[in-house]
Amino acid sequence: MFYRSIFAKLLTLTTRGITQFPIPKPFRFFAFKVFAKTFGVNLDEAGKPLNKYNSFDAFFTRTLKPDSRPYKRQSNLILSPSDGKIQAYGKINKDSILQAKGVHYHLENLYPLDDFRQFIDGEFITIYLSPKDCHLIFSPVAGRVKSMCHVPGALYPVREPYISKFKGLYTKNERVVTRLETLFGPVAVIAVAALNVGNMTMAYDKTFSTNYFHLKKRVVNYDRRIEVRQADHLASFHLGSTVICLFPKNTIAWENLKLEQTIKYGETIAKVI
User: Fold this and answer.
1) How many helices (H) and strands (E) does the chain have?
2) Residue 111: what are its φ and ψ, rounded to 5°?
3) Beta-bridge partner residues of 237
4) Same domain? 198 vs 218
5) 203, 182, 198: which is closest to 248 by C-alpha?
6) Of the residues 66, 95, 115, the one at which a domain ends
7) Rounded distance, CA 110 to CA 73, Å?
8) Claim to verify: residue 41 and residue 130 sit in the same structural domain
9) What is the Cα–Cα distance from 272 to 155, expressed in whole angstroms?
10) Residue 169 and residue 165: Cα distance in Å, rounded?
C-alpha cells in the first residue's frame, strides 16, 4: 500500500525539506499568519515574535510563553504530555488497547519490548496533535529515562476515518518509545509518526533522530542517569501526530475526561493512587 511504500517516505522527506527551508525575514510574518489563520493556531501563545522563526519547522517546534500553560509539578498528578485531542483513554484489558469504538490492538505490538507485561491490565491515553497544536512532547511525570526504542514502520494517517477502520494502525506506523522509571513504576511515552511526520527528535538524546530508511528496531538503554522533571521537554514532532502514554496496573485514577476533548500540555489528566 502507498503508506508503506518508498513513495510515502519520499513524500515525507520532501515535506521535511520544505518545512526546513529558510524563509526570508520579510516574508515570515505573512507566511505564519496565513498558516495560523488556515489551521487555527493561537499566535498569542508563541514564545517569540513571528519574524524570529526562520522556517516552518522552527515554527512547528516553537516553545510557548510560560504563562500560556500554567501547571503545578506534583508527584501525585499525571499531566497531559501534549496539546491535542483525546482519541481514547482508559483501562488496558489484559493486553488489548482501544483504538476507536469497536477497534482494538495488542499492547505487545505497540510496545515491542520484553517488559511489555508491566503494562498488562494497566491504563493508557491517546492524544492526537493537529497542525494547530504545539508539537513538543512533555513528560507527564517526574522520573528517569531508562531506554528509548525506535520502531520503523509505515506512515498511515492517524486521524478519522483511518483510526476507526484500520485495526492496529498505531502498531503499523513508525514510532519512538521512551520508557521512564518513576516512583510508582514504569511509564511509557510513545510518539507515533504519520504521513509527513517521519521526523521525530528526542530532547534527552541529541544524537538521535528518526531515520526514514532504517529497517530494524533500535533499542538504546541508558546507563547514565537521565532525570526528567514533570513537564520537562521530552521529544518533538516536526509536524503533528499522536502521543500514547502507558501506565501500570492500579497506579492511577483518571480525571473526568471526555473523548474528543481538546487538551493542553500541563493539564491534569489523572492522579496517582
Assistant:
1) 6, 18
2) -120, 80
3) 200
4) yes
5) 182
6) 66
7) 29
8) no
9) 34
10) 9
| Total-model pTM | 0.93
The CA–CA distances, whole Å, from 80 to 67, 143, 247, 250 equal 16, 15, 13, 19
62 and 105: one domain? no
Take residue 174 and report the three cell numbers written for it: 513508525
Whether 216 and 259 map to the same domain: the answer is: yes
* Structural domain count of the chain: 2
Q: Are residues 98 and 190 in the same domain?
A: yes
CB-based contacts of 44, cutoff 8 Å, min separation 6: 68
- Residues of the domain holding 190: 69-272
Same domain, 46 and 83: no
**pLDDT digit string (tens) for 92-127?**
999 999 999 889 999 999 999 999 999 999 999 999
Residues 136 and 242 in one domain: yes
Sequence-distant (6+) residues with CB within 8 A of 101 are: 164
DSSP state of 247: E
Q: Do 45 and 155 lie in a common domain? A: no
Would you tell me how many other CB atoms lie within 10 Å of the CB of residue 173?
Answer: 26
Q: Which of 21, 45, 66 is the last residue of a domain?
A: 66
Residue with cell 488489548: 96
Q: Residue 17: in which H helix or E strand, if any?
A: helix 6-20
Q: What is the pLDDT of residues 211-248, one digit of tens each?
A: 556 678 999 999 999 999 999 999 998 877 899 999 99
Nearest alpha-carbon partner for 113 in 183, 50, 51, 178: 178
Residue 66 has φ and ψ, to the nearest 5°, of -55, -35
